[in-house]
Amino acid sequence: MLSVSIKHPDSEKFIDAKMEQGKITGANVSVKMDDDFMRSVVDGTPYIQQYPVDARNPKYSKEVDASVLWDKIVHNAWKSAEPGILFWDTITRESVPDCYADLGYKTVSTNLVVKFRCVPMTAAV
């Protein structure tokens, strides 16, 4: 599975990746949605994307219309069954390894097929 944060400025291009047949094969694509993005969709407020996504002082940022981006995700999922959605803040809030994030055990990906979260320096069994 390939995934990107909705906060990344290139996420819209990623969301469209499976719309062109043959462009990406052999992998599912998913978007990591955060609570701020979903609030922006509900409230109709702008959302800030940035790179790096977790930086306090990003090198690049832009404002997007969250509702337009959400509508694109829904449309593409209807049309091509991709992208999947990962409610990332919920995943990390409920993840056992993330209580040890200060020690380096932080969720960085997940495998939806077997429902194991993958953390650095560990293996899904």
From TrEMBL:
Transmembrane segments: none annotated. Coiled coil: none annotated. The keyword Signal does not apply. The keyword Oxidoreductase applies. Residues 2-96 form the Ribonucleotide reductase large subunit C-terminal domain. One of its GO terms (molecular function) is cobalamin binding. This is Ribonucleotide reductase. Its cofactor is adenosylcob(III)alamin. InterPro entries: RdRp_reductase_class-2, RNR_lg_C. Keywords: Cobalamin, Cobalt, Oxidoreductase. It comes from the Bacteria.
